[in-house]
Amino acid sequence: MLLSRLIQNGSDQLWSDIAILVRVEPVQIEARAKQPDLQRDAPAPAAQLRVREIGEADLPAIAALLSRGFAFRSIDYWLRGLKRHERSSRPADYPTFGYCLDHGGVPVGVILLLFSEVQSGAETTIRCNVSSWYVEAPFRAFAPLLVRIATKDRRVTYFNITPAPHTWSTNEAQGFSVYCKGQIYGALALSRPVRRARVEVFSEAATEGLSDYETDLLRRHAAFGCLSLVVRDGANARPFVFQKHRVKDVFPVYRLIYCRDIGDLKRFAGNVGRFLARRGGLLVRFDANAPVSGIVGWYSEKRGRKYVKGPRPPLLGDLAFTEAALFDS
Fold this sequence. Notes:
Layout: H1 2-9, H2 12-23, H3 26-34, E1 49-53, H4 59-69, H5 75-87, E2 98-103, E3 106-120, E4 123-135, H6 143-150, E5 157-160, H7 168-173, E6 177-180, E7 182-186, E8 198-201, H8 212-224, E9 227-233, E10 236-247, E11 251-259, H9 262-267, H10 269-277, E12 283-288, E13 297-300, E14 306-309, H11 323-326
Parallel strand pairs: 4-5, 11-12
Antiparallel strand pairs: 1-2, 2-3, 3-4, 5-14, 6-14, 7-12, 7-13, 8-9, 9-10, 10-11
């Protein structure tokens, strides 16, 4: 019904209503708490403190710690995502889960590090999604030490996709810079479709036109619970990954997790948007640095900012193997 109203009149008031709705979506509220500000609590004694890698045996304690820091997430939520990451292929010689601040054998702080090996053309890059940083109040004076140790490898591209607005200045002080300024909620189905292009759900039996890396990426994200698609236009194939969620647990939206090039989303917006609309998603959320001509939607820089530190910033539209796919699918 909402899509038909948009098609009939393109009402400015309707887009205003949508903007109000998405402005307070739970995903954004969660981001506000993702990295709590350092509080001025009296520091705990440092004698028994050390920073160490998180091991598999630590996962129950780490999940419990994170659930205390982010009360809107259950222990099962954290364990499910961490186990998914553990089962995924990862670059060798890097921490599996990240680091913890250990006080007498008990984790009192955590910074999750999700390492992955990604390809762009013939180039392979090691990158790390810096995720879910939390330190218990008596130990927060030592939180900067945890971050410095966690992000010290100059060969790695570190990026943060959920910085709360009140932590933006902290990220910048730690050497991170903005690579994505905002996001768009777009009604892709209103765009003109490309004639003869078709959208398919990814299948192992139809991988023509995809690289081995893209085939593996689509397969693995489908296993995470994402929707892996291929758009075919003649002999060309273009991969896409989307994740469905609900704004305020009501309004269905698809989030773009991966595409080869953000220009592919603009070109095939009508085809992809109509395919997703038939699956109950009227809007698509994707990263952007400005409004995109030809796509009807709402662009905002109040949410969606992303930071990077390292040699190869991610392309817009590439959140593959991040917390967005591992934890939220």
